[in-house]
Amino acid sequence: MPALRLPENPPRLWPRVSDGVRSLAITARVGRLLGIAFGICFVTGLLSHYQYAPWNWLPIPSAPAWGYRLTQGLHVITGIASIPLLLVKLWSVFPKLVAWPPARSAVHALERISIAVLVSSALLEVVTGFMNVLNWYPWPWSFIDVHHWLAWVIAGSVILHIAVKLPLIRQGLSEPVAGPDEGEPPSGISRRGVLIAAGTGVGIVAVTTVGQTFTPLESVGLLAARRPHEGPQNVPINRTAAQAGVTTTARAASYRLEVTGPKPFELDLAGLEALPGVARELPIACVEGWSAGASWNGPRLIDLVQRAGGNGDSTVRLTSLEKAGPYRVSTISGPQMRAALMATHLNGERLEIDHGYPLRLIAPNHAGVFNTKWVTKIEVVG
Ligand SMILES: Nc1nc2c(c(=O)[nH]1)N[C@H]1C(S)=C(S)[C@@H](COP(=O)(O)O)O[C@H]1N2
Ligand SMILES: [Mo]
Questions:
Q1: Strand 345-346 relative to strand 349-350: parallel, antiparallel, unpaired?
Q2: 220 pLDDT band (50/70/90 cuts)?
Q3: Which has the closest alpha carbon to 275: 259, 293, 251?
Q4: What ligand has the least distance to the C-alpha of 243?
């Protein structure tokens, strides 16, 4: 039987990458882009986190109303763009990542451990972040806590990494992308080609996801989990009334809005609908990366708070008809509370049940998750 002989030049599916293509010039340039993306993603992520844990001496402003929509949009786009950048960067230093022996000295061992921490935490962060955009949480731990603390680990490791590599970064950025010795490999990919491929990858993921927040690009939102205009009344739904288990209670004749405070009162549906309303254009901007502008109408929250004996400095807690679930209760205060609406109408129609009928909160520059739907209780707590 003839011996099985492997062809000397196996056919390749991918363009051949010669070792000359991996270069400091590419690593440094991709690294710089990745650093910028991570930086924007970190700052906008902290701004989002601040909505969850504000300091009472520094209230969250209510203007611009689209502030959270912008910062959360940037967060998701830079986070997604860092996935191809990170992969290209890892590819560009791959021989070093798997170099043998693993450590030449104690200092070298420390450096490699710090890179292992950086690479693994960055991969975990961007991949779980992307799964969050897809609304997919196949893990038992708190996404928000892990995502937040990993970000600090990454920020620290990135600063350390830049400090250690600064001389190399300088050198790489000063070298031309196409090295003088680089003959164009006949069937290969050039250094410039690698950068163009990386840029195209970033462009594709950015354009196909930005559509879920930036309406002119909605039709190309292939990777977008939600389309800004898909859903009842042209607004997407995070959790339906059926999922929240409120289809009966939200429509029941026994529905009451209870407002507690120094002068508590109660309204039935007719009483609620008789309240004077105001109209506002406000976006819903979800932490999961989609947003949609809409026109809302309903009584001002501050009017209800004042009628119950509170004032503009009160902290207000809203409770949903939903029996369980992480978004059943929310708290609002400061400029956002003073500017908030208790919406009864969306885009000119009575709220659909999935949007929170009979009554929901909608506040400017407020993370979508806190705009409680199916509100049945408003408490002036402080
Ligand atoms: N009671 C209740 N309110 C809720 C939610 C929920 O699950 N339950 N989801 C929140 C989230 S995460 C978002 S993004 C918005 C979405 O509002 P929409 O479904 O009307 O677009 O509602 C918020 N209000
Ligand atoms: Mo959300």
A1: antiparallel
A2: low
A3: 259
A4: 1
Cα separation values, 262 from 52, 53, 271, 382, Å? 27, 27, 20, 10
How far is it, in rounded angstroms, from Cα 132 to Cα 126? Answer: 10
For helices 191-210 and 24-52, what crossing angle results, to 10°? 20
**Do 357 and 342 form a contact (C-beta atoms < 8 A)?**
no
Mean pLDDT to the nearest integer, 187-203: 82
- State the distance from the centre of ligand 1 to the C-alpha of 371, rounded, in angstroms: 6
* Ligand lying closest to the C-alpha of residue 133: 2
Cα 192 from chain centroid?
31
Mutate which of 72, 238, 372 for ligand 1 pocket (most atoms within 8 A of beta carbon): 238
Backbone angles phi, psi at 360, to 5 degrees: -140, 160
**Which pLDDT value is given to residue 139?**
85
Q: Which atom of ligand 1 is nearest to the CA of 356?
A: 20
pLDDT in tens, 312-326: 999 999 999 999 988
Residue 181: pLDDT band with limits 50, 70, 90: low
Residue 24, token pair as written in the block: 């400091």
Tell me: pLDDT of 376 over 60. yes
Ligand 2 centroid to Cα of residue 84, in Å, is 26
Ligand 2 centroid – CA 373 distance (Å): 11
Tell me the mean pLDDT in the region 90-105.
88
Residue 31 has pLDDT above 60, yes or no: yes
- Residue 139's contacts (CB-CB under 8 Å, 6 or more residues apart) are 128
CB contact at 8 A, 217 and 211: yes
Q: Which of 232, 271, 269 is nearest to 252 (CA)?
A: 269
Protein residues with CB under 6 Å of any ligand 1 atom: 235-239, 244, 284, 286, 320, 322, 325, 327-328, 355-356, 368-369, 371-374
Report the pLDDT value the prediction gives residue 189, as an integer from 0 to 100: 76
Residue 8 pLDDT > 80: no
